[in-house]
Design goal:
single chain; about 220 residues; mainly beta; Jelly Rolls; six-stranded antiparallel β-sheet; four-stranded antiparallel β-sheet; 2 helices
Length: about 220
């Protein structure tokens, strides 16, 4: 962008006219609001240290998260006539063992510590999961099964729930849970929690849930 001549140069100790002053300042405002280019800011004129000191955003990442190896069990029901409808050799978490036990309660997953500025915090939890597609409920007063097992995810800041997702019934899926919340300045902990439905007539050799490829992202925007 070429040079823009101002209406009038403002000098020290000058008695200014309000309208002329506004017109002079307006020229600079117009440039800042969409007129910045390589003529205004040459390459290399703003370095990394300057950006770090003056940027209005912080980003936090926790990558490559997955259910711990000690939680990996083999699904025994793959003979084609069992409740494992996909008939796959699944691996993952089962009832009766850590961390699910009898189900119904929240299990802590990945977490990360951040130091934020006062403003807004956008949190995203991206993950893939698989479920054994076992039946969960009976129709009242019958033996007809009417619903499948599901999983649910929750995001917390410093132990307080700020987002609770819906039940997910898909057998295999990749999802993103995202929320925006106000955040104070200082140290905080972001944690992700999950749960499955409570154990009913299920045995303890049926894989109920497994998840992998998780990424937890926090974007702190402030002024």
């Amino acid at each position: 962008m070429g040079y823009r001549f101002t209406k009038e140069d403002i000098r020290t100790q000058q008695i200014v006219d309000a309208r002329q002053f506004d017109q002079a300042v307006g020229t600079f405002v117009d440039v800042l609001n969409g007129g910045l280019d390589r003529d205004n800011i040459p390459q290399g004129s703003i370095g990394t240290s300057q950006m770090n000191d003056n940027v209005f955003c912080k980003m936090f990442f926790l990558n490559d998260q997955f259910a711990a190896d000690e939680y990996q069990n083999i699904d025994a029901n793959t003979d084609g006539i069992s409740p494992n409808r996909p008939n796959c050799q699944l691996g993952g978490m089962t009832y009766g063992k850590e961390p699910l036990m009898s189900g119904g309660g929240w299990v802590e997953g990945p977490k990360m510590s951040i130091v934020s500025e006062e403003g807004m915090l956008e949190i995203s939890w991206h993950c893939s999961e698989v479920k054994g597609q076992y039946w969960a409920y009976y129709k009242n007063h019958t033996t007809a099964r009417v619903a499948l097992k599901s999983s649910q995810w929750e995001i917390r800041i410093d132990g307080n729930a700020v987002y609770t997702g819906p039940d997910q019934y898909e057998v295999r899926n990749t999802f993103i849970h995202r929320c925006n919340v106000p955040i104070s300045r200082g140290a905080h902990t972001i944690s992700v929690h999950y749960r499955v439905q409570r154990q009913k007539e299920d045995g303890e050799d049926s894989v109920i849930l497994n998840w992998w490829g998780g990424q937890l992202v926090g974007i702190n925007r402030y002024r």
